[in-house]
Amino acid sequence: MSKYVITIDAGTTSERAIIFNQQGQIVNVSQREFEQFYPQPGWVEHNPLEIWETQKFTINDVLEKEGVTADEIAAIGITNQRETTLVWDRKTGKAIFNAIVWQDRRTADYCEGLKTAGHFDKIQQKTGLLIDAYFSGSKIRWILEKVEGAREKAEAGELAFGTVDTWLLWKLTGGKVHATDVSNASRTMLFNIHTLDWDDELLELLEVPRNMLPEVKASSGIFGHTDAELFGAEIPIAGIAGDQQSALFGQMCTEPGMVKNTYGTGCFLVMNTGEEAIASKHKLLTTIGWQIGDKVTYALEGSIFIGGAIVQWLRDNVHFVDDAPEIEALAQTVEDNGGVYFVPGFVGLGAPHWDQFSTGLMIGLTRGTQKGHIARAALEALALQSMEVIETMAKDAEIELKEIRVDGGASANNLLMQIQSDVTGKEIVRPEIVETTAQGAAFLAGLAVGYWDSTVQIQKLWAVDKRFTPSGKDVEQIKHNWSRAVGRAKAWVE
Ligand code: ADP
Asked: Are 451 and 73 in contact (CB under 8 A)?
């Protein structure tokens, strides 16, 4: 009798295996960090074997901790850091280079070249993405160019490409299955999100042979089974989705116009746009949310690089607080921001600005500025950045959204949530379980094997912890000053 579903959450700095029960609740978790390699400025790599070994450890560990055997697991769902690129030898199963991580900028110049050569519109139209080193395509090309003999082997069909989901699926199935899901494929800059196939014109442009690409499948469905020797019995791997898309599903944002915001290190906003792939006019990404059966759900996405990391910076770099949650009480010592604005452009600004030459900026400081004002300005910065993306999404999608569902570490901050509601004028809804990324993959996998019957049944599992509604406070001045402050932070680096 299958009692549980397991999610494999293959993150950027750590991997987790999480056991869920039929109520969608977390029963047990195993988590382990793995090494980050920075071989040169702007380069970030992971060791592919370590990604696999770490993940395998967490699965065995969580089963053991909970005293559960593999035959009690109905299905495994995978959710993963997206875009990170691996290439391996099909025969030996060994990677020919380290995994090139999504943050890695080594192909930035090549991508600039693609823009200069006039490929911007075509790539956006086909893939929904803006040309950037962030996505997998240019990273695959780099490996084929730089690793000796790689191109010849690729042409001969001896190499396989995968994002982290595909790599783990390959390993879990003992090298039997080379596949991915549409949500991960849509982050490669090689996948046509309208035809749902790898795009030959883009493959030729980026010089990537089609034969090295995985088969692209629906997000919910049986991809394969774990090798029986790994965990003592075969377990179906029945759901895959990239982390942000998985969170959108975990939040049960299943209708067009529904939005989630994850307040982690960065803020990641994703809006369900239904069966329509909406081309952004304002530098958001169009992406695939998931596919269940034949039905593809599209999404708009806007990423903010520095979200909760503002608070981390205040804690670790300037010792402003000892603990992230302390920021809330500190911000509550004052009535308002006292005229202080804090633009966290530490690594440039993401959506909707995309300015790589901005830096952090604090402005409006006077003799009267207190610690509390700075704390409040920091929380407002999280909320105001998110507001900009929300407003942009509403414009692109021509949808009046009702509410924003929230998750991630900083969503625990009640004051921040209230500010978010005030500046957007929307209802902010925080669910009881904020582990929505892991939940999404569990739901996708459980649906495929009949552990859950339908999304309607799953919707009933999603429960609200707290709703925040606009207080009616006048926010025009704050919004006006924020946009002036952002203007001053931009283009600072000469
Ligand atoms: P990630 O998954 O990106 O590592 P988490 O979802 O764990 O991030 O969220 C952690 C981030 O949220 C950190 O950057 C931390 O500074 C911030 N954070 C955690 N708790 C709070 C809080 N109560 N108020 C504001 N920020 C917080």
From this structure: no
**Which of 200, 95, 103 lies closest to 143, judged by CA?**
95
CA of 411 to the centre of ligand 1 (A): 8
Three-class DSSP category at 1: coil
Q: What are phi and psi of 466, to 5 degrees?
A: -155, 140
Q: Is 304 helix (H, G, I), strand (E, B) or coil?
A: strand
Looking from the CA of residue 13, the nearest atom of ligand 1 is 4
Nearest to 396 by CA among 119, 118, 128: 128
User: What tokens does 174 get?
Assistant: 């003992």
How many secondary structure helices (H) and strands (E) does the chain include?
A: 17, 23
Residue with the smallest CA separation from ligand 1 atom 21 is 410
C-alpha 324 – ligand 1 centre gap (Å): 7
The residue to mutate among 263, 323, 385, 418, having the most atoms of ligand 1 within 8 angstroms of its beta carbon, is 263
Ligand 1 atom, smallest distance to 11 CA? 2
Query: Average model confidence (pLDDT) for the chain?
Result: 94
Ligand 1 mean position to 262 CA, how many Å? 10
Highest mean pLDDT among 112-121, 377-386, 429-438: 377-386
Residues with CB under 6 A from ligand 1: 264-265, 308-309, 311-312, 324-325, 327-328, 408-410, 412-413
Q: How far is the CA of 313 from the centre of ligand 1 (A)?
A: 11
Instruction: Fill in the DSSP letter of residue 352.
Output: T
pTM for this predicted structure: 0.92
Tens of pLDDT, residue by residue over 18-52, are: 999 999 999 999 999 999 898 988 888 999 999 99
- Rounded to an integer, the average pLDDT of 9-24 is 94
Amino acid letter, 351: A
What is the predicted pLDDT for the residue at 248? 97
* Interval between CA 379 and ligand 1 midpoint (Å): 12
State whether residue 15 is helix, strand or coil.
Answer: strand
User: Could you give the CA distance from residue 328 to residue 435 in angstroms, rounded to a whole number?
Assistant: 22
Mean pLDDT of 298-322: 93
CATH superfamily label, 4-244: ATPase, nucleotide binding domain (3.30.420.40)
Cα dist from 266 to 188, 349, 362, 385, whole Å: 21, 11, 19, 10
- 268-295 tens-digit pLDDT: 999 999 999 999 999 999 999 999 999 9
* Tokens 């977390």 belong to residue: 26
Q: Are 283 and 389 in contact (CB under 8 A)?
A: no
* Atom number of ligand 1 nearest to Cα 262: 6
Q: Backbone dihedral region of 98: left (phi > 0), alpha (psi from -120 to 50 degrees) or beta?
A: beta
Domains of the chain, by residue range, sit at: 4-244
